[in-house]
Automatic annotation (TrEMBL):
Keywords: Coiled coil, Ribonucleoprotein, Ribosomal protein, RNA-binding, rRNA-binding. Belongs to the universal ribosomal protein uL10 family. GO terms for cellular component: ribonucleoprotein complex; ribosome. GO terms for biological process: translation. This is Large ribosomal subunit protein uL10. Part of the ribosomal stalk of the 50S ribosomal subunit. The N-terminus interacts with L11 and the large rRNA to form the base of the stalk. The C-terminus forms an elongated spine to which L12 dimers bind in a sequential fashion forming a multimeric L10(L12)X complex. It holds the Pfam family Ribosomal_L10. GO terms for molecular function: large ribosomal subunit rRNA binding. It comes from Candidatus Roizmanbacteria bacterium RIFCSPHIGHO2_12_FULL_33_9. It comes from the Bacteria. Residues 36-85 form a coiled coil. The keyword RNA-binding applies.
Length: 188
């Protein structure tokens, strides 16, 4: 009876990981239940889910996945060394906001840390996950890029406009009326 329950849990974890394009494992120590529920609600709004898992069952589900798909091989090896409490963070294709939310939450609660994760088919250690979480979102980068294009195009326009107006002012000036062209060059 117990074995079938554990097998079902392993299969459930395997299905969650296989159906999730990206995932990360989070370590959490002594954290209040209410804080974990607040984190779950925040993460759910960002198209991500968090599930507390047993390390042995997670390792078994990753072993099954690694036998079917080689991209899970490195993750399986890493999961063998898991200790402490672990939560599985299943992420959508746009995982930056959810990772950012975990990072922000970890600043107020030291017991939350990244362990490792699989993002876009590549495994990342905790330090790299933290760096990825601190990067600006795609929307922020797009808005900065649009601003740069608008700013540079307006700057280019005024750069082109300025020399023409200077040439027109020189042509209109009385210096061109002078009989000696060297005077115009030396005075201009």
């Amino acid at each position: 009876m117990v074995n079938t329950k554990k097998k079902e849990q392993v299969d459930s974890l395997k299905e969650i990981i296989a159906n999730s394009p990206n995932f990360a494992l989070i370590g959490f120590g002594n954290i209040a239940h209410q804080n974990l529920e607040d984190l779950r609600k925040k993460i759910r709004k960002l198209s991500a889910k968090i599930k507390v898992v047993k390390n042995t069952l997670l390792s078994k589900s990753l072993s099954k996945l690694a036998s079917e798909d080689k991209k899970y091989d490195e993750v399986r090896k890493q999961s063998e060394n898991l200790k402490d409490k672990t939560a599985l963070l299943s992420l959508d294709k746009d995982y930056s906001e959810a990772l950012k939310a975990i990072l922000e939450f970890s600043k107020t609660n030291e017991n939350i840390t990244f362990k490792f994760g699989l993002l876009d088919g590549e495994m990342y250690e905790s330090e790299k996950l933290s760096k990825i979480a601190s990067l600006p979102s795609i929307d922020q980068l797009i808005s900065k890029l649009i601003y740069m294009f608008r700013y540079s195009s307006s700057k280019f326009y005024f750069t082109l406009k300025t020399p023409i107006s200077k040439i027109i002012n020189i042509l209109k000036s009385d210096q061109l009326v002078s009989s000696n062209p060297k005077e115009v060059i030396n005075n201009g």
